[in-house]
Amino acid sequence: MPPTTIPPAAWRPLVLEWYRREARDLPWRRAAFSDRYGAWGTLVSEFMLQQTPVTRVIPHLQAWLERWPTPAAQAEATPAEVVHQWANLGYPRRALWLHRAAVEVVERHGGVVPRDVHALLALSGIGDYTARAVAVFSYGDRHPVVDTNTRRVIARAVDGCSQPEAPSKRDLSRMDALLPDDAAESAVFNAAMMELGAVVCTARSPRCESCPIAASCAWLAAGRPDTGDTRRRQAKYEGSDRQTRGGVLRALRHADGHRMPADAVLAEWPDPIQRDRAIDSLIADGLVEAEDGMLLLPR
What we know:
With 299 residues, this protein is mainly alpha-helical. It has helices spanning 8-22, 31-49, 54-67, 71-75, 79-86, 93-109, 117-121, 128-137, 148-159, 170-178, 183-199, 218-221, 241-254, 272-284, and strands spanning 259-261, 289-291, 294-296. A three-stranded antiparallel beta sheet has the order 1-3-2, with helices on one face.
C-alpha cells in the first residue's frame, strides 16, 4: 500500500480508542496530579523524562515536587540543592536549567508557568517538545507534540520506513496534519501517539499484532523492511566522559557539605586525563565550582 493512500482520518479514532483502553497509569496523567501541581508538575515531569526511562523518573518526580511544589519554591533553592536532588537521573544540566526556568517564571510571569508557546520557549532549557507539551497537556491547547516515539509511528505507518529520520521542524507540521480539530481530542491524540510508539511500535521489537492501526500501516504492508537508520548514535556510556562526570557529581553529592579536595575526587579513576577533563567540563557547565583547591556543588 503506497504511503500516500493512507488516510489518517481512518485510523485516528482507532488510536484514540486504543489509548483510552490501554494507556499506562502514570502520575502526570492523573487528575489529582494536575489539580495539585498544575503546569509546573507537567514542566518538571517533561524535564525529567528527556532521555530518561519512565520507571526511573517516577520516584524522583514525586520527591522533587514534594520538596518544591511550585516554581516559587524551586526558585528559592540553591543550585547545589537542585543538583543534589537530581541524583542519578543523568544529564544533570537539566537540573540547573529547570532551576533557572523556575526563577524566570517567578520573575517574568508572577510564579505561574505561562501558557503561550513562545513564552515557554523563552525559558531556560525548554525546546519545541517541552513547550508544546506544557501548553497541550496542562492548558488543553491544540498544538502538535512530537517526541521520538511519535516520529517512529509516523515513519512506519505513513512513510513505510523502519526508523524515522533525524528530527526536524517538518515533524511539527506532519503531526499537526494528523491532529483532530477539537482541542481536547487533539491533546489525547498527542498522548496516544507517544504511548503507541513507547509500548507497541517500539524501536527494536515492535508488537505489530497489538497495534490498533496495523491494517493501515505502510511499513507492515511492505513486509517490515529494514530501510536503515541515519540517526546519530549515542556514544557508549561505560568508560565515557559522561560516566566520569557522573562519578564526580556523585562524589560531591555524598561529601560533607558537598565539597571535597580536588585531588581526592575520583582519585582512583583509571584515566587521570579523562578525570581532569570531566571536572573542567563540569566547571564550565556550572555544575561544579572550584575554590582554594576544593571542588564543590554550585552555591
